[in-house]
Amino acid sequence: MISTGELKKGITIELEGGLYQILDWQHIKIGRGSAQVRLKLRDIRGGHTIERTFQAGEKFPRARLDRHGVQFLYSDGGLYYFMDAESYDQTMLNQEQLGNAINYLKEGMSLELLFYNDEAISVELPNSVALEVVETGPGFKGDTAVAGSKPATLETGITIQVPLFVNNGDIVRVDTRTGEYLERAG
After folding, report:
1. Could you tell me if 142 and 172 lie in one domain?
2. pLDDT tens per residue across span 2-25
3. Could you give the number of structural domains in the chain?
4. Burial class (CB in 10 A: 0-12, 13-18, 19+), 32
C-alpha cells in the first residue's frame, strides 16, 4: 500500500479495478478542513485521463510492474512493435497504451516494456532522448542560449522550444518527462 504522502509522478496504482499512472498531483489545504490530494491519472489500459480528489492519508494498492528490456522496431498504422532484448519475442502496443511516449520513440532505441500480470501495458522511456531537428527557423550569428527561443519540429513529429542558435539537422537532447530542450547533443 502507498499513502498520499508517498505519491509522485510516474507511480502506477490500482484504483477501482483499473490501473492508473499518476501524471500530476497537488496537495491542497483549505482553511480549517482536512488536507486533500488532487491527482491527475491516466488509465493505462484505456488511455483516457481523469482527475480525482482524495483525503490526505488515504492509501492505495501499488501496482507491481515487471520490466523487460526491449528495442523499438517500427510503427504501422497506430500499432507500435517492440522486440525483447533477450528472447527476441515481439510485442505490439497501440497509441492509447503508449500515451505521450510516441513523441519520443525512434527506431532502434532501447527502453523498458512494462508488464502487469503477464500483460504488456506500456513503456518506460529513458529520462532523455537525442532527436534530430527537421524544421526550425534560421539561426543567426551572435544568437546565444539566453537570447530567447523558437519552435522546432523534431524527427518524431513533436514540436518543442529550442534556443535561437539551434539549426535544421542539429541533434538535440529532450527531457522525456517534461518535453523540454536540454542541450545540443552533437
Report:
1. yes
2. 887 788 887 888 888 888 888 888
3. 3
4. exposed
